[in-house]
Amino acid sequence: MKLFKLFSKEKKLTVEFCGKNLDRFLSEETFPKYNAFFNEKNVNYKEYECQSKCKECKKAPYAMINGEFVTAETSEALLEKMKKQLHE
Q1: Which of 27, 44, 71, 77 is an S-S bond match for 62, by CB 3.0 to 4.6 Å?
Q2: CA angle at residue 18 from 79 to 84, to 5 degrees?
Q3: How many domains does the chain have?
Q4: Percent residues over pLDDT 90 in the chain
């Protein structure tokens, strides 16, 4: 058993997306930035077909981050919010 893993202070981030929201707001130029972020070791990513947040989904990019609803004006701004939460 590795004790340093048990007491690690590394923050883990669970990010859940609505696939329809991603299709609506994620552009080809921001996709590589999202992909790089999701490949970080402390980020767990899951995409759902729908999260039943249709009103919010039509207005702006959003994600459920560790169970909290987080939205932003652009997909780039949402990515920055996710990075900030991971590194706090």
Answers
A1: 71
A2: 20
A3: 1
A4: 81
As a whole number of angstroms, the distance between CA 44 and CA 62 comes to: 16
List pLDDT tens digits, range 8-22: 566 789 999 999 999
Q: What pLDDT digit, counting tens, does each position of 59-73 carry?
A: 999 999 999 999 999
Task: Note down the domain range covering 57.
Answer: 13-87
* Domain assignment of residue 2, yes or no: no
Label residue 12 exposed, middle or buried (CB < 10 Å: 0-12, 13-18, 19+).
exposed
Torsion region of 70: left, alpha or beta (phi above 0 gives left; psi -120 to 50 gives alpha): beta
